[in-house]
Amino acid sequence: MTEGAGIRAGDLPDDLTAAEAGMWQAFRNGSVYDLSAGDPVVDDPHGGHPWGPERTVRARIVCWLLLDGPPPLTGRVSALKLRGVRVSGPLDLAGGTVAPYLEMRGCRFDREVLLPEARFTTLRLVNCSVPRLEAARVHTEGDLHLPRCRFHNGVRLTDAHIGTDLLINQAIVYRDRTGRSIAADGMTVGQDLQAELLESHGELSLRSATVGVSLSLRGARLANPYGRLALNAPQLTVERTLYLTPAGLDSPLLSGTTPARGTRIQRFECQGGIRLDDGRFGDAVDLQRARFAFTDEQELSLRRVQVPELRFLGERPQRGKVVLSGARVVTLVDRANAWPGPGNLHMGGFSYENLVPQGPFPLVERLAWVAAATAEYNPEPYERLASVLRAGGEDEDAREVLLAKQRRRRESLPLAAKLWGYAQDGAVAYGYRPGRAAVWMAVLWAAGSLAFAHASRPPAPKGEDPAWNPALYALDLLLPVIDLGQVGLWQPRGGWQWLSAALILLGWVLATTVAAGATRLLRRS
């Protein structure tokens, strides 16, 4: 019987093998067609045990059923549900519309699966061995499930449209000829993208992808020793949360929630750079307990990311950089030992409104955090930190941050300005500790009064004989603006004249530094 003849009546084609005939009848009945041997070693689709013709079907017959198959039996819904089946030849459904439900579990494909521009309701490949999945611009109304599959030459989902969920939990994906493990640039997922416990060997590319709910890479292991990036996802949009966190290993079902205490876990690990530049995340980016292994040239790049909450709670990268330049975060949840050291943190233009440290994070370490991000003096990180602390009611810490900013700025000034800066710092701490001015004034006044009290009375102008008051005279010298009428009445000689000049100069220094501090206080208010 030629292909197509008698199909509408449900007749079996003449050239089908026994395995294919059984598949044909199971398709019409909508039942599972299971060719498993019952031995886990033999049935392992990723193992080396050969599968003979008794469990082999041709890809051409599979395509025939899916694209133009026979009608279902009365009262049944046709569906292709295969288990333990070997598919020979390339499965080519490119551009086709597949109406029947398709599910293949524990199957082995000899050649690539070609689905570009194909349309499905729901497609499930579970624990299958696939040389390559080529599915650019594929469209599903429901789910695309690829859990526990192994793809030996990569997966291509560029510009794919997944109606509900994309599941690739526990899949193992090796790179293709371009160095990518999964190429999913421009992909749209209606709900969740779950890639928990994924193993990616190559670049996982999600450039300009959109995820309608959450993207979970819990427990995933991404490694790309062949290139600079292990996760390349600029302009990624996730309506809720991106999880780069641990996954539980004890439960057979991945719940998509943070594992309970005491559960065996696998951390998210990344050997290679991560690029999330210009990403938009509706709820959070969660890096709790994430582990990064970078080279000196690689980085965790979060440039211009916008997210309500950044949970920076991973392990400190020993090498490489963390870049937050231009990122906008409402709440930064972090830990002191999660940040890299000096020279490896960049925060130019990084904006955040609230700080929620997990564990001890004293101000001295927070200042070191800012200093680590500014190899050269930059006032912005200090002013941002001070603003956040002041908004949280920590005015004293905010003043300490601004004082640290002035001291850092001083190191970049020429010698004369630097010396003047030291004078302001020592006198009133750049105006952030104005009480020092009163102490210095009192000390100088006492010292001057004591000195003039032991001096001979200086000569007064001719025709005048005022009373000599050493304390009042010393105070008049120290106050540069207020005239107490004492300095003009006396004419000190020799060393006393030098002492008078010194008190006048010190009075001006104190007044100038107090005025500078007051100006800063008024500007901040």
Task: Describe what this molecule looks like in 3D.
Helix 5 runs antiparallel to helix 6 and helix 8 packs antiparallel against helix 10. The mean pLDDT is 85. The strands form six sheets. Strands 1-3-7-11-15-19-23-27-31-37-40-42-44 form a 13-stranded parallel sheet. An eleven-stranded parallel sheet has the order 5-9-13-17-21-25-29-35-39-41-43. The chain has a domain at 431-523. With 525 residues, the protein is α/β, with parallel strands linked by helices. 26% of the residues lie in helices and 25% in strands. The chain crosses the membrane at residues 496-522. This is Oxidoreductase. Keywords: Membrane, Transmembrane, Transmembrane helix.
In short:
This protein has 525 residues and is of the alpha/beta class. It contains ten helices and 44 strands. A 13-stranded parallel β-sheet has the order 1-3-7-11-15-19-23-27-31-37-40-42-44.
Draw up the topology in text.
Elements: H1 18-29, E1 32-34, H2 40-43, E2 56-58, H3 59-68, E3 79-83, E4 86-88, E5 91-92, E6 97-98, E7 101-105, E8 108-109, E9 113-114, E10 119-120, E11 123-126, E12 129-130, E13 133-134, E14 139-140, E15 144-145, E16 150-151, E17 155-156, E18 161-162, E19 166-167, E20 172-174, E21 180-183, E22 188-189, E23 193-194, E24 199-201, E25 203-205, E26 210-211, E27 215-216, E28 221-223, E29 229-232, E30 237-238, E31 241-243, E32 247-248, E33 265-266, E34 269-271, E35 273-275, E36 280-281, E37 284-286, E38 291-293, E39 299-301, E40 306-312, E41 321-323, E42 328-334, E43 345-346, E44 351-357, H4 363-372, H5 379-391, H6 395-410, H7 415-428, H8 435-453, H9 470-478, H10 495-524
Parallel strand pairs: 1-3, 2-4, 3-7, 4-8, 5-9, 6-10, 7-11, 9-13, 10-14, 11-15, 12-16, 13-17, 14-18, 15-19, 16-20, 17-21, 18-22, 19-23, 20-24, 21-25, 22-26, 23-27, 24-28, 25-29, 26-30, 27-31, 28-34, 29-35, 30-36, 31-37, 34-38, 35-39, 37-40, 39-41, 40-42, 41-43, 42-44
Antiparallel strand pairs: 32-33
